[in-house]
Amino acid sequence: MLATVLFTDIVDSTRLATEMGDRRWRGLLEEHHDLVRERLEGFKGREIKTTGDGFLAIFAGPTRAAECARAIADAMPSLGIEVRAGLHSGEVELIGEDVGGIAVHVAARIAALAGSREVLASRTVRDLAAGSGVDFEPLGHRELKGIADEWEIFSVAVSPLSAGTTV
Fold this sequence. Notes:
CATH topology: Alpha-Beta Plaits
Helix content: 25-40%
CATH superfamily: Nucleotide cyclase, GGDEF domain
Largest sheet: 7 strands, mixed
Low-confidence stretches: 160-167
Distance between the termini: 27 Å
Strand content: 25-35%
CATH architecture: 2-Layer Sandwich
Shape: globular
Number of strands: 9
Order of helices and strands: EHHEEHEEEHEHEEH
Structural class: alpha+beta
Radius of gyration: 15 Å
CATH class: Alpha Beta
Mean pLDDT: 93
């Protein structure tokens, strides 16, 4: 199926977990998970799984995925943490309750490029979301570990649409 894949990840999670200790870290992760799930529901995303301190989710289209990712990244400082996110649209294989395929790998590699509070997307996402009101800022071409060719990457900027969205 065609989907937009979203990966999120808490920045500096190992350091934070070490500083906080297991009990406090677990409580923070629960708050993080609740906030992400609230945003996923509000933007009609489908949680596939948690990845320790992050999420893998899919969306029927790139605009909701981009807006959701931006909303997640913008909400996390309220918990005292920051996340990074990556987006790519492409064919995914449904494997039971999981998803697989190159599009999933590409989204994961794009997320790995992101810095604190950054939402990065492939050109595919940018092209498919044309006219949606989501702002994409070009970052140039990047190599994605294990993926052929260079990929044009964009930052998902705060747009008037996402800035006014409440979920």
